[in-house]
Structures are given as structure tokens and as C-alpha cells.
């Protein structure tokens, strides 16, 4: 990280810390009734549905993962099969979903799911989402199975977001690969852009967001140490991604899908890095305007 980037990061963190301190003080200070509506109207996410991909908490049991989402003050999630197994009954799926909803967390998507290249596996993936009341499936299908996905999307009304996994992925390395492949399919088949994997392919995540905007149904936000194929994940703001540009693009296209933090640096102790990353994003957004 160069000197100017480090200074910029420190500025954002100071801004986020100041905002957090003022918020805490405001909680205990007396306020007039006229101040309450203004305070309630402020949204630190500027309308974005900021949540978390629970893969971040995949080493934590279900109840601890839910507590972790609440601890970092998020209200949306994309659930991973570590917390809701694909081999589960309808009743089990409904019970797990209810735990999230009872905690004030809305499940906007599930995944990433990699179905086998057969109709039974794909059917189970759709039933899994339907049973849990989840509107969008983030998945990594084969190209051969796209017609089957198209049929199930039409039958169920659920959305599918194809997730890219970077240069190691021989099917969907970049979201642009998925974008080209889905053009003749039902419009409810779209993409989930992983900005880290996208950058590792040499593709600008900001340009990908704008290109795929009509069918951008989920997004994994993260940061990476360097923009290369073997880069490692880092806390948001400590890496090289243009996070402000990414947020600006999402606001500009009026993105309505799940914006999920996927923090992969330390799965055994994810809360500190997750909290830092969320605070950093709030600091960046505090100086921006909604699209």
C-alpha cells in the first residue's frame, strides 16, 4: 500500500471512528422529539442492502453465526450450506430460516452452491431455496446445465446468480463469461459478481458492475492484497480494490440485490476483521450520496 493510500485509509477510519463515537454519545444524550425522525431517517448504507455471506462465519455453528451477523449490525445475509445443509428436509430449512428472521436478519440469497450436472441435483437446489423462502440462488452451474436452470427458473420464479471464481475457475472465471452465456436465457438468470475474483482475472470490477447491471442479482464485496491471480484476502481498505468506485457504481445503477461482505482472511476468528471491514465501508459511504 502506498503512502497516499495509507493516508486515505487512515482518514476513512478516523471518520468512521468519529461517527461511531458520536452515535454512541447520541444514544445516551437527551434528544428532542424533533430530532428523532431525522436520526431514524439516516441510513449508513444509502439504500444498499448490506449484509454478509455466511461463508465468512462458516467455521461457527449456526447460532454463533447469527449472533455474529447481529454483532456487526447487519440485517441481511446470504446463507451458506455450512449453516443450512443442502441435504435437509423442508421443515429443517424453514426452521433455520426462521432463526434468522427472528433475529431480524433477512435471507436474500443462498450459496455458493455447485450443483451436480443432473436434473435431480438442480431440482434440490431450487427446492432448498424455495423451502427456506430465499429469492435468489447464488451458484456455479456447468454450461451444459444452463437449459435446465432456465426451465426451473420459469417454473419457480426464483432468481439465479452465477458466481465467478477467478482464474482457477475453468467455467466462470469472470462475471463477463457468465454474462455472455446467459443472454438467450430467462432474464431471472443473472450474475453474482465477486469483486476480488474479478480483479484477479484482470477485469475491472467497476466496469463489470456497470456491464452486468441489468442482471446483477448478488455481489460479494471483499478486498485483496494485490491484483493478481494468487492474491490473498485482506480487510476492506487494506488492499488494492477501488471500493469507493465499486460503491459508487452500485449506487449509480440503483442496485437492489444483496451486497454481501465475504471476509475470508481468518475463518477461525472472523469477527474482528469483519467488524473492521464493515466500519470501513460505513466510513466510505458517509462521504457519498445515494444514486
Can you describe this structure?
This protein is α/β, with parallel strands linked by helices and 291 residues long. It has two domains: 1-42, no CATH class; 45-285, Divalent-metal-dependent TIM barrel enzymes (TIM Barrel, Alpha-Beta Barrel), CATH 3.20.20.150. The chain is built from eleven helices and ten strands. Strand 3 (106-113), helix 5 and strand 4 (136-139) form a beta-alpha-beta unit. It starts with a helix and ends in a 6-residue tail after the last helix.
Please give a quick description of this structure:
This protein is an alpha/beta fold and 291 residues long. It has helices spanning 3-28, 35-41, 62-71, 90-102, 119-132, 146-156, 175-181, 195-200, 205-212, 243-252, 271-285, and strands at residues 49-53, 76-79, 106-113, 136-139, 159-163, 189-194, 216-221, 223-224, 233-234, 258-261. The chain contains 11 helices and 10 strands.
Amino acid at each position: 500500500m502506498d503512502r497516499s493510500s495509507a493516508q486515505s485509509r487512515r482518514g476513512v477510519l478516523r471518520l468512521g471512528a468519529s461517527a461511531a463515537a458520536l452515535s454512541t454519545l447520541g444514544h445516551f444524550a437527551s434528544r428532542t422529539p424533533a430530532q428523532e425522525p431525522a436520526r431514524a431517517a439516516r441510513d449508513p448504507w444509502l439504500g444498499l442492502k448490506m449484509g454478509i455471506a455466511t461463508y465468512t462465519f462458516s467455521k461457527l455453528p449456526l447460532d454463533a453465526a447469527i449472533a455474529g451477523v447481529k454483532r456487526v449490525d447487519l440485517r441481511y445475509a446470504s446463507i451458506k450450506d455450512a449453516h443450512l445443509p443442502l441435504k435437509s428436509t423442508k421443515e429443517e430449512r424453514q426452521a433455520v430460516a426462521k432463526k434468522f428472521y427472528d433475529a431480524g436478519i433477512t435471507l436474500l440469497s443462498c450459496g455458493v452452491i455447485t450443483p451436480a450436472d443432473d436434473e435431480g441435483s438442480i431440482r434440490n437446489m431450487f427446492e432448498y431455496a424455495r423451502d427456506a423462502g430465499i429469492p435468489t440462488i447464488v451458484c456455479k452451474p456447468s454450461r451444459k446445465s444452463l437449459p435446465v436452470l432456465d426451465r426451473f427458473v420459469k417454473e419457480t420464479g426464483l432468481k439465479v446468480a452465477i458466481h465467478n471464481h477467478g482464474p482457477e475457475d475453468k467455467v466462470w472465471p469472470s462475471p463477463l463469461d457468465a454474462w455472455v452465456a446467459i443472454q438467450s436465457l430467462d432474464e431471472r438468470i443473472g450474475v453474482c459478481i465477486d469483486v476480488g475474483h474479478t480483479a484477479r482475472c484482470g477485469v475491472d470490477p467497476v466496469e463489470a458492475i456497470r456491464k452486468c447491471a441489468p442482471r446483477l442479482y448478488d455481489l460479494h464485496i471483499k478486498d485483496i492484497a494485490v491484483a493478481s491471480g494468487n492474491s490473498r484476502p485482506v480487510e476492506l481498505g487494506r488492499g488494492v480494490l477501488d471500493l469507493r468506485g465499486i460503491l459508487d457504481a452500485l449506487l449509480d445503477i440503483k442496485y437492489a440485490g444483496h451486497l454481501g461482505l465475504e471476509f475470508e482472511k481468518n475463518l477461525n476468528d472472523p469477527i474482528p476483521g469483519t467488524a473492521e471491514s464493515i466500519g470501513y465501508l460505513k466510513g466510505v459511504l458517509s462521504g457519498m450520496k445515494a444514486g
